[in-house]
Design a protein that fits this description.
The chain is built from 10 helices and 10 strands. By secondary structure, it is an alpha+beta fold. The chain has 3 domains: 57 residues, Orthogonal Bundle (Arc Repressor Mutant, subunit A), CATH 1.10.10; 86 residues, Endonuclease I-creI; 80 residues, Roll (Endonuclease I-creI). α2 packs across α3 and α5 packs parallel to α8. The longest helix has 15 residues. It is elongated and about 65 Å long. The N and C termini lie far apart (76 Å).
Length: 276
Amino acid sequence: MSNNFPYIKNINNFIFIMPQKISNKKNKEICRMYKDGISCQKISVALGLNKKTINKYVHQSNLMRNLSEACKKYKVNSNFFSTYTPKSCYWAGFIAGDGCIIKNHYKEALTISTTNDRNHLKMFIKDLDSNYSINSYKNNIYKHKIIYTIKIHDQKLINDLLNNFNITPRKSLTIRYPIQMPQKFNRYFIRGLFDADGNIRKDGNRFHFRIISGSLNLLQTVQNILIKNCNLNQTKIYIDKNSNAKQLEYNSKKVCFIMNFLSMPFALSRKNLRCL
C-alpha cells in the first residue's frame, strides 16, 4: 500500500490503522505547524495524513504539549490596524520593513523577526494587548546571533494591514506606500520603516542616514515626504544590481532635520541621533 495512505492491518479480525512513513520534509512541516499552535487533528486534515502519524512524529520530536498548553488561547486586539493612530502607523511601517504575511493552504500569519530587539517585540505585543509569545532561534549564518520571532494568527488584523497599509504576502519588491493614510501620520509610518530597515551614524561632523527596501515606489514616496518636511534636496536612489535592493541615503548636517521630524517616544531608542 502507498505511503500516502494509512497502513491498515488485520490482526485477529481487528482492523488497526498504523502510522504512515513520511519524508523528512513532511516531518519538518508537521513540527512547524505544531509549534504554531495548530492541533494534530487540523494538521492531519491539512497534510492528508492520519492522526496517529501526526501524534507519532510530534512525540518523537519531543514537542507534545501538555493539557494546559494545548488549551491555551492567544488573545490579540484584532482592531489595532483598523484605524490610523500614531502607534498603528508606526507598527505598520515596522512590519513593512521587518515583517511578512505568510500564506499557505491552511491559514495566514503575520510574522515579525529581529536579531537585536526582543524588547521592541515585547512592546509590540503589549500595544496589541496580546499574550502571544516570542520565539528565539539561532541564526544559521551568524552563529553568535539570536533571531527573535513573533507569529500572530488573526485574519482581521491581516486584512486591515492589507487594506489600510498595502502590506501583502511576498511584499518585499511590490509594496507601495499607503497614500490612503492621512498625511499627519506619515512620520510615524516612516519612523517604523526606518527602525526596521534603516540605520544612522555620525562620522565626525558628518551624519549618515539610510533606509533600504526592495520597493522603489516605497522609497520614492518616503523621499518626497522627507523633502517636503525636512528641507532636503532630492538625491538619487541607489539600486544594487546583485540584490535589487534600493537604498535611500542622506549624508549631511540636514540629517538632523530628518531625525527631528521622526522623533517620537516609542521609537527604537538605539536608532535615535542626538544632534548637538
